[in-house]
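Weekly puzzle thread! Below is a chain. First person to post its structure in token form gets bragging rights.
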Amino acid sequence: MGGVKAFYKGFLAPLGSVTLVRTANFSVYQKAKYIFSSAIGKATGMEEPLVTVNRPGSIPTPSTVLCFGSAGALAGCVTTFLACPFELLKNTAQIGPEMAKKDPTRAFNTVGRHYAGKGTIRSAQEIIRQHGYLGLWSGVRLHMIRDTIGTSVYFMSYESMKQLIVKYQGTSSPTSPSAVAFAGGTCGVFSWLITYHIDFVKNNYQRNCLEVAKGQTVPVPTINYLDRKQLRGLGVTIFRSSLTNAVLFSSFEYLKKKINNLPDPIID
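Winning reply:
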């Protein structure tokens, strides 16, 4: 219970991470998809995937799916190291009070209490004090697995869904607003459906890392796709993801189009 403020616990970390990580994610992806497209075209001796996608009436092919999936996987993998500390701090701010309420007779709770009721900056300082600087990257391997798979599915499903909708609509524009919004809304859903169990295990592992003293071994929880407990909160996550990604991609494509239409600067 904590009133309205409870809904905003840990919001500073995701606010910073969403800005930085999304910027890095999209930047790496945009660069990588051209590299993979060129490489696939040269390797197969066929039309490059990006040429196929931009041709009116085209549909997803194995080469386009491979191109977008590979570029997304690379983007997710690379940005893991940036995203992991932010997400750990978000989780710390949200679970700190819960950790403090646990049975005080259990030894690890003397460590867990250090994080209760603290903001993002103070939580970061406490993690560094308790676990060293590398403590900010607790669970980074699970984070990398989740984001490599999830971001691959994310961009692959977005680009493919958008391509199919544009063909169905019969429009010549590869970035039809309705296609972009719908594809954006569904790509996050597909991504979370595949990676939610991994995210559940990652969050538990990170929490367990914070509950023990420095140097103690923390076992990695098992991912069990048949365990319904690992699906808690999935509905809310999917609903939030569909809305935010519809807005995100609509804004992204709109701004990208505006930027591409800007006149070239005059060079004296």
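Puzzle host: Confirmed. Bonus trivia for everyone else. The CA atoms of residues 184 and 245 lie 5 Å apart.
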